[in-house]
Amino acid sequence: MTIQVEMKDIVNLCQNRWFVYPGSEIYGWLANSWDYGPYGSLLKENIKNLWLKEFIQKRMDTMLLDASLIMNPKVWEASGHVWGFADPLMDCKSCKNRFRADKLVDAKLKDGTPEPEWYAWDKTESIRLKEIIDELNIHCPDCGEKNFSDIKKFNLMLKTFLWVTEDGASLAYLRPETAQGQFVDFTNVARSSRRKLPFGIAQVGKSFRNEITPGNFIFRTREFEQMELEYFVTPGEDDAAFAEWKSESNRYLTEVIGLKSENVKFVPIKKEELPHYSKEAWDFEYNYPFGWWEIETLANRTDYDLKAHMTASGQNLSYFDAVNNKRFLPFVIEPAMGLWRITLAALCDAYTIEGERTYLKLAPRIAPIKVWVLPVVKKLSDLGKEIYSQLSEDFVCEYDDVGSVGKRYARMDEIGTPFCVTIDSTNYEEWNVTVRNRDSMEQEVIKITELNSYIKERLK
Ligand code: GAP
């Protein structure tokens, strides 16, 4: 029987089993900050490395970049983030809680309230939004009152100050997306790599947003990691590239990471909700315990960014097509994924309760620990450690010679370890070990010399 997983189960598992802890916990936590513990770090790293393998290592037309987190503030003026990257905020004057006005409207419309006809074309404009809230008779979700302040726009970029002179600091921003690095470095990469279109430039790394309503554990945070690829194409070839990345994104999420396909859907973003830079965009959503929410945005950014940086910097960012002897600004297709959101989706997807057993049915290739080595009795510890060294040449392993074997199996199941190698005295004499499979709980006797290839075969 499949039991619907609840967020509290995931949060408890993460905190009790070394996946994710509250950040700065000994000082009472910094709200909505999370630290990845030993297993969480490995799980997240595996998801990231598979993205790099699929989209950098295996493709001939993509390259990796690692740009600065703090860029020249002019980058964010040119990209539109300084004026456009803002949420409409509203306070409840009765309970003093703060809300995103557009999200309250979305929540009401999800309840089935018919959309006012003017909603579509005027959604983010503050005064109209306040009228929409009145029209839909929206009350405070926390205290039930209808006593809202005016709506104010709140910029999401996290500010910092750089001491550029002895007596003064200048304002800078922590990047709210990795993407602008690819645009600002476009000519450097294109020239030095001598690539012909189409080609992609990718970045994986931290981004920061001063989110007004962070929450749902690691789903919406102020500091998070993105995996973004900017795929530069000749204008006119953008629709075909968009379709290709739609199918590549789906393949990565369902086949590579192993999310159940019924828990992933792809939805078009309405024209009036598109970000300022895009011509077309679709969201990949995952069916989290708290509902369907975005895991990836796939956008056709046109030549918006290159054009904006070319105008603001005065540098020529155009591409020279030597075959047709033409200069132009390429269009950009951008699959932008949230690493933390995929990690959370992988945990929710894998959480399995079968009878008395609770375990993480993670795809073996993303499991934090691949093999757990268990000598049944202490006198087999030396051989156990030798087998650990043999296996750890190829896999991340754990060694454990304490407690009952049943309890050790349960611990390994709970963190999703797909294989457990048990050494007992009988098979020790025959130079065999027993491999226990997490999902079937079946055990197979394997020669020690064949152990690495046996496991490697099953991790593919
Ligand atoms: N460069 C385009 C861009 O940044 P986005 O939809 O704002 O697009 C891409 O972000 C992905 O980054 C999202 O689909 C989501 O998975 C992740 N993301 C965005 N904000 C986040 C946050 N506050 N916490 C965790 N992940 C976030």
Any descriptors?
Herpes Virus-1; five-stranded mixed β-sheet; 460 residues; alpha+beta; binds glycyl-adenosine-5'-phosphate; 28% strand; BirA Bifunctional Protein, domain 2; 3 domains; seven-stranded mixed β-sheet; Rossmann fold
Written description of the protein model:
This protein has helices at 7-16, 38-57, 73-79, 81-84, 101-110, 126-135, 180-184, 186-193, 238-256, 304-313, 339-350, 381-392, 405-414, 425-429, 451-459; strands at 20-22, 34-36, 62-64, 86-91, 98-100, 152-155, 158-165, 168-174, 199-208, 223-233, 264-268, 280-288, 291-302, 319-321, 326-328, 331-338, 351-354, 357-360, 371-375, 397-399, 419-423, 432-437, 443-447. The chain is an alpha+beta fold and 460 residues long. The protein has 3 domains: 7-83 and 157-351, 2-Layer Sandwich (BirA Bifunctional Protein, domain 2), CATH 3.30.930.10; 88-154, Herpes Virus-1 (2-Layer Sandwich), CATH 3.30.40; 369-458, Rossmann fold, CATH 3.40.50. The strands form 7 sheets. It has a 7-stranded mixed beta sheet. A 5-stranded mixed beta sheet has the order 20-19-21-22-23, sandwiched between helices. The chain binds glycyl-adenosine-5'-phosphate. Glycyl-adenosine-5'-phosphate (GAP) binds at residues 177, 179, 209, 211, 220-221, 224, 226, 228, 294-297, 334, 336-338, 340-341.
